[in-house]
Amino acid sequence: MEIDEKTILKYLNEYFGFNSFKGNQGDAIKSVLSNHDTFVLMPTGGGKSLCYQLPAVMKQGTAIVISPLIALMKNQVDAMRGHFKNDSIAHFLNSSLNKTEIQSVREDVLKGQTKLLYVAPESLTKEDNVNFLKKIKISFYAVDEAHCISEWGHDFRPEYRRIRPIIDQIGRAPIVALTATATPKVQHDIQKNLNILDGNVFKSSFNRANLYYEIRPKTNASKEIIKFIKANSGKSGIIYCLSRKKVEELAELLRINGINALAYHAGMDSATRSNTQDQFLMEDIDVIVATIAFGMGIDKPDVRFVIHYDIPKSLEGYYQETGRAGRDGGEGKCITFYSYKDIQKLEKFMQGKPIAEQEIGKQLLFETVSYAESSLCRRKQLLHYFGEEYREDNCGNCDNCLHPKEQFEGKEYIVLVLKTILSLTGNFKADHISNIMAGKLTSAIKLYKHNNNGVFGIGKDHDEKFWNTVIRQALVTGLLNKDIESYGLLSVNEKGKEYIKNPFSFMLSKDHDYENGEENLQDSHGGTSAVDTILFSMLKDLRKSISKKINLPPFVIFQDPSLEDMAIQYPITLEEMKHINGVGMGKATRYGKDFVDLIKKHVEENDIERPQDMVVKSAVNKSGLKVSIIQSIDRKMSLKDIADTKRLNMSGLLQEIEAIINSGTKLNINYYIDEVLDEDHQEEVFDYFKEEAQSESVQEAIDVLGEDEYSEEEIRLMRIKFISEIGN
Fold this sequence. Notes:
globular, Rossmann fold, single chain, Arc Repressor Mutant, subunit A, 5 domains, 34 helices
């Protein structure tokens, strides 16, 4: 059709309500309207759907949109119908429809009323659908989520590779391939497989400046997630987990802690999944906990955070999933919890797959690990991965730029890496090079006899992780090339060879060490999980003054771990106080008021932003054991019998009882103590704790009272009696 700019803008405004195009949308739409094969690479939120929706409305015939998910099709059809008076403008044809519904769809298409027909790749191959599509005028084919074509893409689907032969069978029309994520390698795969290498390519920048990227060590991840969500109350978010089991566990934990969340995964029936997605879109729920089955093409512009409980299998998956945050250009926080143990689990899952698939999977995982552990700007690394150069030194919106790691002069290390790679016959992967330099003897090094090479162990003062860091930073700055086709083999390019001749200052950053507890990054709100030492000291002074006033040892009021938790959590109400470690309702009511008043004043005077989730309740009902122990003691059961029935040893049972009385519950175990200690001995230990004890230490009591006289168990029993009667 003849392209007239005015007419295109008239259609855009009339049907979609926009006055202008975003980025290179306009050029891509003109290409489709001119019947050219077209490749559109646009990040999530860039408006790629419009690149086929508008031409479909303007052109004669029906556009066939090949889409991977039933939920996505329904979502897109509903959105399209919202722009038009008549529902027949868009339909889908998939396994969710019965025969009558399929017939109704076909009638609308044959009447020429349907401009967009969404089809799953599996439905496209069915003989009766092929025969039906041969009867209609097809304006063009749009292959959405086209990265599914490539084995190097993050969501490879074999049926996507059969699309081109089926198109040839139905009847040729222009092809539009669209994706929100593709490395140069994946882009080439898509164009080659669809036979559109000569098509027009429209590639937008992958930079999403509004997204904040952060990697956190995976310690207490569930608690951290609850804390984060409560600090962002009322905002929409998605949490991704790799397993269905973890999805359901985490969704339940969030609900227990007062967060409006639902689970979503492929194991649920389609009605439940569809209902959950609708509730999320309608804001009846705030948070979806999901496997990657959720969200592909989800049309919700105001998702404010995307959390990865488990690190994704590839950077493409990571980019695609984080891209669902802030599609409206507003705030979008992308928090990922990382542990190398998760990577090892993913590697185990690959075993048994074809060798080529394992090699691809390992290379994609290596890229993910490099990204997670690196201290370089997250944005710079992501864009480099997708073949785009980011020239800024500091993006100002990722954890590494906001909290930069220590830097050191790396000129000599870079030169050493480049020379090592050049000295080897043939090309090798980054982990192989780093092992050679660190002098780490692996089976691959023995196989290539690189342990006999002069460069073996040339950098043995540092480990292989250090050399991986150097290699990674040499790659990002363009001194090395990586051949993705050959699973990541490295070579020194002309720029690298020039650097060896004329080296210049090259500042390197230390990598993160998430596994060894070295990380204590502030969160994006500026708080940390460290104890407030000033408050802790004030709380100890308050405890001491109260203990003198009521003539009780300080530890009877609150033990040190409880004060430490207060100096981290800042409880300012009795309700919050009762959830502090070792407090409970009894102690909160009896002693809590002075403490919460002091904490509240400290928070206000110092303008402290405190963690919002004072409680992270456990999904596992551990309180059942405690209730059972209390009931058994009320019935005066022998403690030895209670221990046996609960499958605990005596020390373990006493630990449970201590936890019960330390949180303020009164227990009477006199009936049992009377069996093991006479009255004089009981009195001596009781008086010690009341008048002499400086702390609750059992060992100190034994030292003073004599180990020949008392066992540890007897002292613990009497300490329980003392705290229960005097403290509670």
